[in-house]
């Protein structure tokens, strides 16, 4: 039996990228001892990972939200 790997949709790839970016930001905030911000970034990463993709999902909006939260 042959196994065919499914290619994830661009929306799923973008969602995972945004979640990884938020997680990386959380680690950076922990490193500089900004724990409340780190917790918020981890919560954002978790929400991104657990969220379904609505038809109106826009990667620019998600990326912009992470960048604003990181400032």
Descriptive account of the structure:
It is built from 3 helices and no strands. The chain is 70% helix and 0% strand. By secondary structure, it is mostly helical.
Mean pLDDT: 78
Radius of gyration: 14 Å
Envelope shape:
elongated
Structural class: mainly alpha
Describe the sheet with the most strands.
none
Order of helices and strands: HHH
- Provide a count of the helices: 3
| Distance between the first and last residues' Cα | 51 Å
- The strand count comes to 0
Poorly predicted sequence stretches spanning 5 or more consecutive residues: none
Give the strand content.
under 5%
Helical content (DSSP H or I, runs of 4+): over 70%
What topology does this entry show?
Blueprint: H1 10-31, H2 35-50, H3 59-70
In short:
The protein is mainly α. Helices cover 70% and strands 0% of the residues.
Please describe the structure with a list of short key phrases separated by commas or semicolons:
mainly alpha
């Amino acid at each position: 039996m042959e196994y065919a790997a499914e290619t994830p949709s661009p929306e799923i790839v973008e969602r995972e990228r945004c979640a990884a970016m938020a997680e990386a930001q959380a680690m950076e905030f922990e490193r500089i001892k900004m724990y409340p911000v780190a917790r918020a970034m981890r919560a954002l990463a978790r929400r991104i990972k657990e969220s379904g993709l609505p038809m109106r999902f826009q990667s620019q909006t998600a990326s912009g939200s992470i960048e604003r939260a990181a400032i």
